[in-house]
Amino acid sequence: MADTEVDTADVVVVGMGPGGEALAGSLAEAGLDVVGVEAALVGGECPYWGCIPTKMMVRAADALAETRRVPELAGGAEAFPDFAPVARRIREEATTDWDDTIAVDRFVGQGGRFVRGTGRLQGADTVRVREDGGGERLIRARTGVVVAAGTVPFAPPIPGLDRVPYWTNRDAVRAEKAPGSLAVIGGGPIGLEFAQAFARFGTRVTVLEALDRLLGSEEPESGELVADVLGREGLDVRTGVRITGVAHGPDGFAVETGGGRVEAERLLVATGRRPDLEGLGLASIGLDTSGRAVPVDERMRVAPGVWALGDIVGRGEFTHVSVYQARIAAQDILTGGGGPVADYRALPRVTFTDPEVGAVGLTEERAREQGIGVRTGTARIPSTARGWIHRAGNDGFIKLVEDRDEGVLVGATSAGPNGGEVLGALSVAVHARTPVEVLRSMIYAYPTFHRGIEDALNDLVSGDSEG
Ligand SMILES: Cc1cc2nc3c(=O)[nH]c(=O)nc-3n(C[C@H](O)[C@H](O)[C@H](O)COP(=O)(O)OP(=O)(O)OC[C@H]3O[C@@H](n4cnc5c(N)ncnc54)[C@H](O)[C@@H]3O)c2cc1C
Ligand SMILES: NC(=O)c1ccc[n+]([C@@H]2O[C@H](COP(=O)([O-])OP(=O)(O)OC[C@H]3O[C@@H](n4cnc5c(N)ncnc54)[C@H](O)[C@@H]3O)[C@@H](O)[C@H]2O)c1
């Protein structure tokens, strides 16, 4: 094509979310000629529409919840919820009004070259970029192409859904005020974090989950705990729901379920995410683009000269996974195959509801499916010294999953106040395969939440919960 600019680089990175940005920056700093291609904002979903703005909402909502706990502990206090400071923080502090100039400048400062546009593979060593300005550029990669293009919200095939103006996380993050009422389809991390945060600002929230429990990939106890707490906070949480239709009119949304109709001013769809493998041209390197993820080996390689990382490879849709994989891929690229391999045994995740649900490694069910001889131990937070002291808002538990033949933890959950922080110690134990006997010989500071780990270890070795 006559007006197509042809360019060459060592590495072309398609998608500059947390993973792509980390990889492209480190390769550029190492002296490679790197072109980073980004269709939207450098930084990706996490800083602009995901982790950071939602955690600002959660922080504010938690402050309101703590105020409501004052009467039980310290007299009286009254909160006057106002979403405006949250919306302002998200706009001004988190996203600079959804402007990525700082991130682009940082990458260019590291020595990278940046192209704003949509990239598509044309074979293993070439990326065709449709630039925002209207031009087109063909970039040939001497060393390789890295696909780090993330995922987009998935809308389930519910009759009527494609004709109504429902919210995804992108709209919910840009809310200027808490809606009067909100129906949330999906009881995973996205749905639950938004549901609780808006409810604490006064929104009447209904959560509709198809499975028989919330947080379906975690321990069943986690979903039960969150459903119980949300219910007590006044949310209407329905599991095992089959949604048969959605409509929108002047009065808002109507969601039809087997158990009746749910009406709400806003509808948030949070039913998982999918990559666009077809749009990325991955068929040109022989991949089946109907799949739900890009298959990679343990060094993030897809094919000779092609790597993929982050949400698009489906090994955990978390920023820390994306950045971890960027480190693995960067070392593979820089050493020509001599770097470490990815190890997901101690993959941590935290759902930032209150109580926070932290988990690492395998759930009990997954461990049993893998043929591991499992022993579990549990401590209830309200029964621990610190939980009892804490009182209002002390719901939670610590559950350990031990490989009883090896005498090491292969998974753990810490749900409760600061559950994500307590997870730190458990992550080290699973990652380092610290023997349970060594964990039992440690001194746990009194009275901390993490001392609940010792209670759970005692339950583990008591033998009562063997299975
Ligand atoms: C509401 C919400 C809350 C979350 N909270 C957390 C949390 O608390 N903790 C956590 O660890 N994770 C959280 N996540 C998940 C986290 O945001 C993702 O795991 C992370 O952003 C994935 O990084 P990535 O680099 O793989 O992809 P992304 O962040 O999705 O970035 C991919 C980039 O590629 C670009 N792109 C796509 N196609 C093309 C193309 N053809 N050409 C050029 N560019 C392209 C996109 O525009 C995007 O910028 C949350 C997600 C959401 C939605
Ligand atoms: N704190 C965090 O780290 C954090 C926060 C938000 C998102 N994330 C990441 O983003 C990813 C996507 O989050 P998510 O919550 O959208 O996805 P998810 O897959 O975890 O949960 C989606 C839920 O929607 C339900 N669902 C699907 N179709 C339905 C239907 N027709 N009716 C009712 N329910 C239906 C599913 O059963 C599931 O429970 C997560 O996997 C997570 O890794 C992480």
UniProtKB/TrEMBL annotation:
InterPro entries: FAD/NAD-bd_sf, FAD/NAD-binding_dom, FAD/NAD-linked_Rdtase_dimer_sf, Pyr_nuc-diS_OxRdtase, Pyr_nucl-diS_OxRdtase_dimer. It holds the Pfam family Pyr_redox_2. It comes from Nocardiopsis endophytica. Residues 10-326 form the FAD/NAD(P)-binding domain. The lineage of its organism: Bacteria, Bacillati, Actinomycetota, Actinomycetes, Streptosporangiales. Belongs to the class-I pyridine nucleotide-disulfide oxidoreductase family. Residues 348-455 form the Pyridine nucleotide-disulphide oxidoreductase dimerisation domain. It comes from the Bacteria. Keywords: FAD, Flavoprotein. Its cofactor is FAD. This is NAD(P)/FAD-dependent oxidoreductase. SUPFAM superfamilies: FAD/NAD(P)-binding domain (SSF51905), FAD/NAD-linked reductases, dimerisation (C-terminal) domain (SSF55424).
